[in-house]
Amino acid sequence: MVYKKLTRIPTMPFLESSGNVLIIGTTLIDVQGNQFIHYNEVTASDAGMTKLLEATAAEAFYNSAERFPPPRCHPATRQRILSHIKTWSRALKDESPLTASNRILFLCGPVGSGKTAIAQTLSEEYGENGVLAASFFFARGRDRRGGIGHFVATIAYQLSISIPIIRDLIGMIIARDPSVLRQSTDVQFQKLIVDPFKSAFCGVPIISSQHPFLIIIDGLDECDNDNHQEVILYYTSALIYKHCLPLAFLFTSRPNPLMQDCVQTNSFLKLNPPYTIFLASSVKDTFTFLESGFHEIRRTHEIMATVSEPWPSAEEIKKLLYKSSGHFIYASTVLKFVGDENANPTERLALVLSEESAPLAELDELYNQILSTASNRALLRRATLSPSRKTKLPAIPDHFQSGSNHVRQSHQD
In degrees, to the nearest 5, what angle opens at C-alpha 307 toward C-alphas 306 and 312? Predict the structure, then answer.
């Protein structure tokens, strides 16, 4: 008996008279006399998927190594916001995309309000329970996470994993024409997402509960090119409202005029206004976060065994809350600075609370980056060159006041 395994697909005599044959992900065995010949059709698809993986921004996944450890919500914080989002996603689960409305949600909030922590917490939870289809965490200035160049490939790759029925279809498309990965954004959306869905489901309407459906895009305002932010909004909304794909999108972003303009000029979103949640600062949640963080420092840092309680004092935490204005990014940076294993936490805390120094260089860098993108250069010079270092950032206005699909979180939460 002779056994042959062919990695390439030769002419198959038993299919010569057949037409319109599509074979995906299988091994065919042709018995010819005393020979068993295996035809491995999946090879081409796998080659395409390998090329797709090379084109993805794996750093932008919610569980990427580059982002470890990622920011997460403390279990006792942001409960109302998380509840609102979960209620929205549950309502979409059994809804046909043909009757879909509000399948796009915007979570808007100022810098440091905890948007990324919320997106991360939801990504992890939805990733475990089979709701998350894909994620992309933008980061301004990062090679693959900062622009649109790898965005579609990254989403398509994750969809191929979470929805296996489209995997080989995507792989074969790339195998036939690898240049698709370098074609325009609209072509990539069509060939790598729309066409595989249409082929897999043959135009039959399906509901979201049949597979993972939620795509989380964090920090859309962090995309380096403003025009690309608009492009992403247009084509993702087209997936839902033009092509009726059973998907939904959760975007996080700072509220700014550009995002408002994108919504107003987007023909799909004008007819289907996105569900918008405004994320305000939260003194209560920030207090819980600080209290828990200092407790952990006291429990794990070897120096703290000799420090008498209470540490920090109620007055010191009150000062930190005042300095933070209820923003998580300040509290998070303080805890990271104070809890450095190579430093003395009590000395570090005293340094943070002093008026003479600004030890939070990481926070300074963030705000300098934000200011560097502003068109008002005079404001930038005042903010970065002020010797007192007390220049306040201008308040970020709400640009999403109109519309009925809005939820605003109380500042007293």
Answer: 160
